[in-house]
Amino acid sequence: MNLWRLMSFKLIFKLIIYYSKRLLKIRYTQDEILLNNYYDFLIKNNGIILKKKKRYFICKLYWNKQPLKLALRFGKHSDLYVYEQIFENNDYSIAIEKYKEFFYTQDLIIVDAGANIGLSVLYFKKFFPNSLILAIEPSYDNYLLLRINMYINKIHGILFFRKALWYKNTLCSILTDFRDQLDWSMRITENKNGNIEAITLSDIIYLLKYKFNKNHIDFLKIDIEGAEKELFISGAIQDHLKDIRMLVMEIHEEFIKKNYINKIMCDNNFFTCENGETSIYINSI
């Protein structure tokens, strides 16, 4: 009832049109499909809409019987796909199991490069509530929802960076020409006239050392839509592999081959395991 109570008449009417077309086997529009997918998502997850804003909804649902509030965009965005990838497909579950198997699990330092709207951060906090997470996201719209999602869930221990992980200090800009061109496919390019500052692994290690008296990253997650190529080709990541206990990464083979990265990691005493599109590298030293 809460779901329908908070829907406008206009949205209800659109859903009625959509289901009528399905019943009559009439072709429906992409917007009608997106609307249906959003409310199917809420129903499937026993969710309700708490608040509607101009650019996003705040909803409440349950994951593993635990309440979870989410700010999600409606329409041609990737937010529902990101939720499915992280909370339904559990893309990071094997990485978390492996970390707990090999390393101490309290007070982790987690770096989430490509944090998107913060769903991976919320997932990591479910398993490591005392962790300090550095959340890095270059897109302004994604970054805004990242901040909102931490606030509405009362999540603490997050450092936010609206920056791009890159191999050197420079300016960057966002390109939207990759794959499905949605929010989770935005990629970064170096641009001296860009409006996004780069952040390097050296910057991060320096910050951890002098502000938090930490000399390593426990759990480094990288999902940066091909920019991992620049980190490996330049040697920027190799310079700090000794400072990383676990690297969890989606490799985009349109830019750099997985076998190339696997060899580098093996040569630096990491062993590898896979979970779907996620590559997991564990420091054996």
What is the CATH class of the largest domain?
Alpha Beta
Summarize the main sheet: 7 strands, mixed
CATH architecture of the largest domain: 3-Layer(aba) Sandwich
Q: Average the pLDDT over all residues and give the rounded result.
A: 88
User: How many beta-strand runs?
Assistant: 14
Task: Note the run of SSEs as H and E.
Answer: HHHEEEHHEHEHEEEEEHEHEHEE
* Helical content (DSSP H or I, runs of 4+): 25-40%
Return the CATH topology of the largest domain. Rossmann fold
Between the first and last Cα atoms, what is the distance in angstroms?
Answer: 55 Å
In terms of structural class, how would the helical and strand content be classed? alpha/beta
Q: What's the shape? A: globular
Helix count, per DSSP? 10
| Overall structural domain count | 2
How large, in whole angstroms, is the Cα Rg? 20 Å
User: What's the CATH H-level superfamily name of the largest domain?
Assistant: Vaccinia Virus protein VP39
The poorly predicted ranges are none
Strand order, biggest sheet?
Answer: 6-5-4-11-12-14-13
Proportion in β-strands: 25-35%
Structure explained in plain terms:
The strands form three sheets. This protein has a seven-stranded mixed sheet with strand order 6-5-4-11-12-14-13, with helices on both faces. Strands 7-10-8-9 form a four-stranded mixed sheet. It has helices at 2-5, 9-24, 30-44, 79-88, 93-102, 119-127, 140-152, 201-212, 228-233, 258-267, and strands at residues 48-52, 57-63, 66-72, 109-113, 132-136, 158-161, 164-165, 171-175, 187-190, 196-199, 217-222, 244-250, 270-275, 278-283. Helices cover 37% and strands 26% of the residues. The longest helix is centred in the first third of the chain and has 16 residues, at 9-24. Strand 4 (109-113), helix 6 and strand 5 form a beta-alpha-beta unit. The protein folds into two domains: 2-75, no CATH class; 90-283, 3-Layer(aba) Sandwich (Rossmann fold). With 285 residues, it is α/β, with parallel strands linked by helices. Helix 2 (9-24) packs across helix 3 (30-44). It contains ten helices and 14 strands. The N and C termini lie far apart (55 Å). The protein is globular and about 60 Å long.
